[in-house]
DNA sequence: TAGATTGTTAATCGATTAACAATC
DNA sequence: TAGATTGTTAATCGATTAACAATC
């Protein structure tokens, strides 16, 4: 791939979807796909698929398409999921406990290796074989397992404080479920997943596609 | 607002974030914000904020900024969350049960009024005062409560089948947590939340900001 | 070969940004 | 008034698309 050149933001948002779709085709027993077969279920045009993939290198075969096994390997390497990632989970409320049990993470190489909570009453509790640690143990455990990623599932008003501690202890990426925008220093990466925001976006779409039909314009 | 004119896709993705930020400022006791104050925490430029809001109408006051209470009201109306939305939850695995208990939905006017599952052994169980119904009761309950929205938290391989049933029973918007791309007819709206995809996007960012530094280019 | 499909170009389209007159 | 901040313009930037020669 082009030595370190940075992929356009729009491309980055799609490669994981390509990977997911390819894995689905592989489970179905297919061995090759065309750019149309790959893009259609994702509502992405075939030209877009080819351009996105071409950014990273020449993986296709004219007249054939893409070899699924080959492309899965390439994309996994590009994304960085061709290896296991240990991570910590902070916050053991309803959402945190669900994320801990969520099988989708494990099957994709994400392993939660430690749990943390601010709430004194939750510390020491055992969840699926892991004991909830006080936030003070964060530095030791992060160093011990060389952990770079954290899932943040604490209440909104605690999120920034916890994020600061995560950053101070060496965490380089945070998947944030708290409904707030976090401030982190450069070099620390954030992905925010605000479930209410997603649901609101859905409501907006539903409204548009119904009632709000025509009227003027 | 301009009679039914459709907002650019990019704008739609930001209005819920503006609303969330405004509510946060309101809790802090502020009564006005400038476009910079609103955009900065979200890493959105002030010109962008003004342009986004101006799309829907003139809500700002030169020299002052935006009145928070006023703008919250306007945005809630635009998004469609100035009223309550009943919704159904399908799938009572770990994630489904967590979403049911998630307080963030309730506080924003989203009320889960019925639960469904394919799994015979889960039907009849009581969760937080709601009884899990067989999927066959979907039509009756959707009609009864005039429900338009569904949260889909079933395994990947069941998702499309359930989505088809939801659509057939009149659901117009689906928040899909299953890690598959669903196919739905026009007029039905989808928002997909694939937690593993989000985590993979985070890994990609972390890799970029570290190891992959320079090399050529 | 004939048919299919790539990688890439050039054209279009939409989104972002800086700048500033108008306004309070 | 002086200072702050809007709404909007015009310029830039990036993303999408159609089309097609090259390839298997």
Structure characterization notes:
The structure is a homodimer of 217-residue chains. The N and C termini of chain A lie far apart (47 Å). In chain A, β8, α8 and β9 form a beta-alpha-beta unit. Helices cover 44% and strands 18% of the residues of chain A. In chain A, strands 6-7-5-4-8-9-10 form a seven-stranded mixed β-sheet, with helices on both faces. In chain A, strands 1-3-2 form a three-stranded antiparallel β-sheet. Chain A has two domains: 71 residues, Winged helix-like DNA-binding domain superfamily/Winged helix DNA-binding domain (Arc Repressor Mutant, subunit A, Orthogonal Bundle); 112 residues, Rossmann fold (3-Layer(aba) Sandwich). Chain A is globular, with a radius of gyration of 21 Å. The first copy, chain A, has 217 residues and is of the alpha/beta class. The first copy, chain A, is built from nine helices and ten strands. Chains A and B meet through α1, α5, β9, β10 and α9 of A and α1, α5, β9, β10 and α9 of B. Chain A binds a DNA duplex (24 and 24 nucleotides) through α1, α3 and β2.
């Amino acid at each position: 791939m082009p030595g370190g050149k940075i992929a356009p933001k729009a491309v980055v948002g799609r490669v994981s979807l390509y990977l997911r779709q390819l894995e689905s085709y592989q489970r179905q027993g297919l061995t090759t796909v065309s750019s149309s077969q790959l893009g259609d279920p994702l509502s992405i045009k075939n030209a877009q698929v080819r351009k996105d993939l071409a950014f990273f290198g020449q993986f296709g075969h004219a007249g054939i398409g893409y070899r699924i096994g080959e492309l899965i390997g390439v994309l996994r390497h590009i994304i960085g999921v061709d290896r296991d990632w240990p991570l910590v989970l902070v916050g053991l409320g309803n959402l945190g406990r669900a994320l801990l049990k969520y099988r989708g993470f494990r099957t994709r190489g994400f392993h939660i290796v430690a749990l943390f909570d601010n709430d004194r009453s939750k510390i020491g509790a055992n969840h699926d074989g892991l004991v909830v640690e006080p936030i003070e143990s964060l530095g030791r455990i992060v160093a011990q397992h060389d952990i770079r990623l954290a899932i943040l599932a604490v209440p909104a008003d605690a999120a920034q404080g916890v994020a600061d501690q995560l950053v101070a202890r060496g965490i380089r990426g945070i998947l944030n479920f708290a409904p707030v925008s976090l401030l982190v220093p450069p070099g620390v990466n954030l992905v925010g997943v605000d479930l209410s925001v997603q649901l609101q976006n859905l409501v907006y779409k539903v409204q548009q596609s119904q009632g709000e039909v025509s009227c003027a314009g």
